[in-house]
Specification:
The complex is a heterodimer of chains A (456) and B (756). By secondary structure, chain A is of the alpha/beta class. Helices cover 25% and strands 27% of the residues of chain A. In chain A, strands 5-4-1-6-13-8-14 form a 7-stranded mixed sheet, sandwiched between helices. Chain A has a 7-stranded parallel sheet with strand order 16-19-22-25-28-31-34. Chain B is α/β, with parallel strands linked by helices and 756 residues long. Helices cover 42% and strands 17% of the residues of chain B. Chain B contains 26 helices and 36 strands. In chain B, the strands form 7 sheets. Chain B has a 9-stranded mixed sheet. In chain B, helix 16 (552-583) packs across helix 18 (605-622), helix 21 runs parallel beside helix 23 and helix 22 (677-692) crosses helix 24 (717-728). Classes of the chains: A alpha/beta (456), B alpha/beta (756). Chains A and B meet through strand 11, helix 6, strand 12 and helix 8 of A and strand 11, helix 7, strand 12 and helix 15 of B.
């Protein structure tokens, strides 16, 4: 498989403060007690892709990520960790590692994608049409709490957020229009020229770009070279490729299709034969001259791969998403976690110790070596390794990372407690984030706050 | 008043509808057939005969429509006649349509109607429509079954009373090169909800200069999934609820069914009326809108797409015709020379004679025609009683009743010969010309929609020309027409209509002739250029890293906006300030309020400083001593500037005192925006501007108030000096105030030097 894989693992995303820090970059945030990056790597491994480049922003973060990868995947994957400066954007990151890319096509995956969509399916769709870019599209996740019983009614009233407006051809193979970010707030403008060429365009506002792209390498590099202002794959490169697809500028400097068309008559014949073999896509029809003569226009194809609704596909790019993913991976999408669930639908590591009258509900996880006191109750939460939890503690809908100490009588709801944090007695937290190593003093009550040590 | 009426009318309509739903369900299906298209596309033919009576494959068009309506289960048809109404009514009276069982045809006649909207308003007044009805024009050919569409419409209507109309559409992709459908109509862009089939957007008559379709953001917010179509054709068959008629009455400016009514409904979100679509797949429906669709629909009929409405099946108004091999239809009593070749897909009418060695293909020949020998007819439509002498050539033309073509005449593609025209020997009629016995009407209404084949004038003209052609020619000589009337060869009779300005290029679009090759190449090149422009635009923008902004126009808008904004901002600040003065609001709170205004209008602190200062000075003027100010303003300003010191001191003194007071009270507010020297200069400039324009009262006091501002530490000496320096190079007229404050500036300069 002539595909190179680039995993963009990011650095310490500002959106995820206080969960991330110098010691814990975004890629290593635990999802069901495993770094989020491991989910991507596992999927790639399943698709039998073993050579990959992991790009990390910032030297410190790169060191952490590199250390973890070499420990965890030493004999399974061949991973190269590349460091790029912070804030170069996704396009900048690829620009920085361009000299590493040699294969015909490049698969770019975001390191924060938790999904069970096989990357192989995306690459196959890409190859089938000889596209310059293939983007994976998935349905917009329903965010927020969905508690077991009441979830149905609640979710229906809640409108899922909008991330993209995506226009596709009726066969749902080609990407014709994509709007992201600020464009969503404006009226949607669809170019008539492309609509004329394709006839019908399905516009969807309930899908989103999952940030897994297959690029034609030479095209990608050309775009990155020529458009040095492009910062982001999602917001600059992909929309650019989509909107120039009927008047391609990028194939001029000798990309595969361009060469083919330029060469002598023999090729033309084979082109026609190829085109006749399957129903030509609208690109090919459009490229033809007025009476079906040889192609006169240069076009390129932008494809999509739509993940089916039954697949799980969410990006960990906000604190809410972090909570959602943790909840889902031990809940509805538990096949992703790779653990075997007990009969009670939860995972309690054998080495964990539970006090008397302590209950751990379904959809919960208790990491190795953690101890819980008496009369505790855990519902729909993840608790990491070697945590010390006192008596009479309630943990609901929360994520507790490793080595956390929780005093007696605490109540934690909808919160994230980072590693090495300490909660003294009778702390009550609701919808809070407690940063790395933070100490919450006894008896405090917080609601919807972000508690972290001051960065020096 | 008007609105009230509207509401009352709507309520009445609603009441009428909801009276008895059961009764409604049993209503026999009604239809409105508009026997007038309210356009002029078939001129000059339609000056003499209404469009619905023009023969389509030897049968008047209206018969296709009526036959379909009867077959589709419509019980009662109201034929609305306008232009040439007499001819239509006469025709219907002599036809079998008035004597059909279970199918009633009634005519409604009106002469002063100029649009479909008016027609429907008139029908509403007559109060004859009681339930759902089919709205169709008399030039539509279809064989679809209405059952399903009707049922869908009824079910939707039951669930949602606002679903007033179901439009029939059919797949047909327009050519991306010519941007028109195969029927010669403009390309159509529609947005349809793929699940409910609701129509969300409709754009025909496309504005080619706009390269994009703009979907309102609310549309996507409400419908997560939308299908945009460029590959559908509007069949102009609508199933309507009775509300449609009352809607036309309520909105008396609706004229055109699509352009006004459909668009009006789509844009109007108050009433919430909805239009749905029904797509037909295997059946046929098309409207004859122009010569090209006349050609295409004729071919479809010959090729039997419209079965059972084909020449060899007897339906109302056609003669027995036999179908032979290769799509050849021949009526009875045809005299055909042995050596004549009649090609495929040709219809030959009753009693026609064809001479030796003539070749006819892909054409329709009417009844009683005489075609000489060595004639070539290709892709043409020859109506009844036409005489074509030897050696003529006709390619892709329409020839109306009674035309005589003398030997050797040639018609180039796209020619239309109206009734009884005579073409002289060996005369070559240039491509796309229209020839008629009637002169081209000289008055051209700019709005083609409102222009229609005017009934009365049409017939008057017609009757005057009923006499011998020579005579009419003679009559016309007095006018200048003689000059621009090209002869039609020796013995030719008729006028070649000049193609009106601008229309020349578009003539090929709607003609019966196929689009010439070179036109296509030209167009496809133009299309490339289009694309080029668009992409260049885009890249220019995108290289600068900006998001796509679509056109320069929108940028212009932005500029406009920002100008407006600053005016609004100033007003808001002034209002805030005045309120603060009246209600004794604390300075801190005013600062907060102004800050929030600043954020919402996205203004700089210099703007704030300017606006606050402006409001303060305005207040100073308004503070009661108006009589004095009134006096002041009476003086012409240039005079007052020069003679400022000559003023009675109490007048300017009072204003100065007021100003000083206000500045003292509100200096904290002003100071909070004076972070840099630039803002201070902004204030001086603002003050200058005020003195010149909006508050001339201050002009004599300029120097003094400047001094006050300096004393209160609002303005630093640096700011004043820099302002003076900046003004150094300005025009004399600009320097008035610098002059006025010369002494003060001088003093400041000396003071600063001393310090140094």
């Amino acid at each position: 498989m002539d595909f190179q894989v680039v995993v963009l693992a990011g650095g310490t995303s500002k959106k995820l403060v206080p969960l991330v820090s110098k010691e814990v970059p975004k890629a290593l945030l635990p999802v069901a007690n495993r770094p989020v990056l491991s989910y991507v790597l596992e999927q790639l491994e399943l698709s039998n892709i073993k050579d990959l480049i992991v790009v990390v922003e910032g030297a410190d973060a790169a060191l952490c990520v590199g250390g973890w990868i070499s420990a965890a995947y030493v004999d399974r994957l061949h991973v190269e960790v590349a460091t790029v400066p912070e804030d170069v954007g996704t396009a900048g990151a690829l620009r920085a590692i361009a000299h590493h890319l040699t294969a015909k096509d490049v698969l770019v995956v975001s390191g924060d994608l938790v999904s069970d969509v096989p990357p192989g399916a995306v690459t196959a769709a890409h190859r089938r049409h000889d596209a310059v870019v293939t983007a994976m599209i998935c349905s917009v996740p329903v965010s927020g709490l969905s508690e077991a019983g009441s979830s149905g009614a609640k979710d229906k009233t809640k409108k899922p957020g909008r991330y993209n407006i995506i226009g596709m051809d009726p066969t749902k193979q080609f990407l014709l229009h994509i709007a992201t970010g600020a464009e969503l707030e404006k009226d949607t403008r669809i170019r008539k020229s492309i609509l004329r060429a394709v006839g019908q365009m399905d516009i969807r506002a309930d899908l989103m770009d999952a940030h897994m792209y297959a690029f034609n390498r030479s095209v990608l590099q050309e775009v990155l070279d020529q458009k040095d202002k492009f910062q982001s794959l999602k917001q600059d490169v992909l929309p650019y490729l989509v909107r120039s697809q009927l008047k391609s500028e990028i194939l001029i400097n000798g990309a595969p299709q361009g060469q083919q068309a330029k060469e002598n008559g023999n090729d033309k014949v084979s082109y026609r034969i190829l085109a006749n073999a399957s129903t030509p896509s609208f690109h090919e029809l459009y490229a033809l001259g007025p009476n079906g003569s040889a192609p006169v226009r240069r076009t390129h194809k932008c494809c999509v791969y739509i993940a089916s609704n039954s697949k799980y596909c969410v990006r960990l790019n906000s604190i809410q998403a972090f909570m959602d993913i943790n909840r889902d991976v031990i809940g509805e999408a538990n096949h992703l976690s790779g653990y075997n669930f007990s009969a009670q639908n939860n995972i309690i590591h054998p080495s964990a110790e539970l006090g008397s009258k302590t209950t751990v509900g379904p959809h919960c996880m208790l990491g190795e070596g953690s101890q819980m006191g008496d009369k505790c109750s855990v519902k729909r939460s993840v608790i990491g390794r070697h945590c010390r939890i006192g008596s009479n503690v309630k943990v609901v809908n929360s994520v507790v990372m490793n080595h956390v100490t929780i005093g007696d009588g605490c109540s934690i709801q909808g919160s994230v407690i980072c590693s090495n944090a300490q909660l003294q007695e009778r702390v009550a937290l609701k919808d809070c984030q407690v940063g790395l190593g933070y100490v919450v003093s006894a008896g405090c009550e917080y609601k919807g706050e972000s508690l972290a040590r001051k960065e020096k | 008043m008007g609105a009230q009426k509207k509401r009352a009318a709507a309520a009445a309509a609603a009441a009428r509808v909801s009276e008895d739903p059961d009764d409604l369900a049993r209503q026999p299906l009604q239809a409105i057939l508009l026997a007038d298209s309210f356009t002029t596309k078939f001129r000059p033919i339609t000056l003499e005969r209404p469009k619905v009576l023009l023969p389509l494959v030897n049968v008047p068009m209206i018969n296709y429509t009526l036959a379909w309506l009867e077959a589709a289960g419509v019980a009662e048809v109201f034929v609305f006649c306008c232009a040439h109404s007499k001819q239509v009514i006469d025709y219907l009276e002599n036809s079998e349509w008035f004597s059909q069982p279970n199918f009633t045809v009634k005519t409604i006649e009106s002469h002063n109607i100029i649009s479909a909207g008016d027609a429907l308003r008139l029908i509403y007044e007559q109060n004859v429509i009681h339930g759902d009805f089919v709205l169709i024009s008399g030039d539509t050919v279809s064989n679809m079954s209405l059952t399903q569409a009707l049922q869908e419409h009824k079910e939707r209507k039951k669930k949602d009373n606002n679903a007033v109309m179901t439009m029939i559409i059919k797949k047909s992709k327009p050519s991306p090169i010519t941007r028109q459908s195969r029927l010669g109509t403009d390309e159509l862009f529609m947005a349809i909800d793929p699940n409910t089939k609701q129509l969300l957007y409709y754009e025909d008559k496309a504005d080619h200069s706009k390269g994009t379709i703009c979907l309102d953001k609310m549309l996507l917010a409400e419908n997560p999934s939308i299908s945009l179509h460029n590959d559908k054709q509007d069949c102009y068959i609508d199933i309507c609820s009775p509300e449609v008629l009352s809607l036309f009455t309520d909105n008396f400016d609706y004229q055109h069914l699509r352009r006004h009514f459909v668009k009006g409904l789509l844009l109007d979100d108050i009433m919430g009326y909805k239009i749905f679509t029904h797509e037909i797949h295997s059946s046929y429906a098309a409207r004859i809108d122009n010569y090209r669709s006349y050609d295409i629909v004729s071919k479809d009929i010959i090729q039997r797409w419209t079965y059972p409405y084909v020449p060899d099946v007897k339906f109302c108004g056609n003669r027995a015709t036999k179908l032979e091999r290769r799509g050849m239809y021949r009526a009875l009593e045809i005299e055909q020379s042995r050596s004549a070749q009649v090609g495929s897909f040709t219809v030959i009418g009753y009693g026609t004679k064809i001479g030796s060695n003539s070749k006819i293909s892909d054409s329709v020949i009417g009844e009683g025609c005489t075609i000489g020998s060595n004639v070539l007819i290709e892709g043409s439509y020859i109506w009844d009683n036409v005489i074509i002498e030897d050696g003529c050539e006709l390619r892709h033309v329409i020839v109306c009743d009674g035309v005589i073509m003398k030997a050797g005449a040639v018609l180039k593609p796209g020619v239309v010969l109206s009734f009884k025209v005579v073409i002289g020997e060996r005369f070559v009629v240039p491509a796309y010309s229209k020839v008629s016995l009637l002169q081209q009407p000289t008055v051209h209404d700019s709005d083609e929609e409102l222009e229609y084949a005017d009934n009365s004038s049409g017939t008057v003209e017609f009757s005057s020309i009923q006499g011998t052609a020579d005579q009419s020619n003679g009559e016309m000589t007095s006018e200048s027409s003689e000059a621009h009337k090209p002869k039609l060869g020796t013995g030719g009779v008729g006028y070649i209509w000049s193609i009106c300005e601008g229309g020349q290029e578009e003539e090929w679009r709607h003609s019966v002739a196929p689009i010439p090759e070179d036109k296509l190449t030209e167009l496809s090149e133009a299309m490339d250029d289009d694309q080029e422009l668009v992409t260049q635009d885009r890249t220019a923008l995108s290289t600068s890293g900006e998001l796509i902004s679509d056109s320069n126009a929108s940028e212009g808008d932005d500029n406009e906006d920002s100008k407006d904004d600053s005016v609004y901002f100033e007003k808001e600040v002034e209002a805030t300030f005045l309120r603060a003065v009246e209600e004794n609001v604390k300075v801190d709170h005013v600062i907060l309020e102004v800050n929030s205004l600043r954020l919402s209008y996205n203004m700089t602190s210099a703007d704030c400083a300017g606006a606050v200062f402006y409001s303060m000075m305005k207040l100073a003027i308004k503070t009661p001593h108006s009589s004095a100010i009134g006096l002041l303003t009476l003086y012409p300003s240039p005079f007052s500037m020069v003679a400022s010191n000559a003023y009675p001191i109490y007048l300017s003194g009072e204003l100065q005192q007021n100003t000083a007071n206000i500045i003292t009270t509100w200096q904290k507010l002003l100071k909070s925006y004076l972070l840099e020297i630039d803002e201070e200069i902004e204030i001086i400039l603002k003050f200058e501007e005020m003195c010149l324009e909006s508050a001339k009262e201050f002009s004599p006091l300029f120097a003094r108030i400047l001094h006050i501002l300096y004393d209160k530490d609002i303005l630093q000496e640096d700011a004043i000096l820099r302002w003076a320096d900046e003004k150094e190079g300005a025009d004399e007229s600009d320097k008035v105030f610098v002059r006025q404050s010369e002494k003060f500036i001088q003093w400041l300069r000396e003071a600063s030097e001393e310090e140094d």
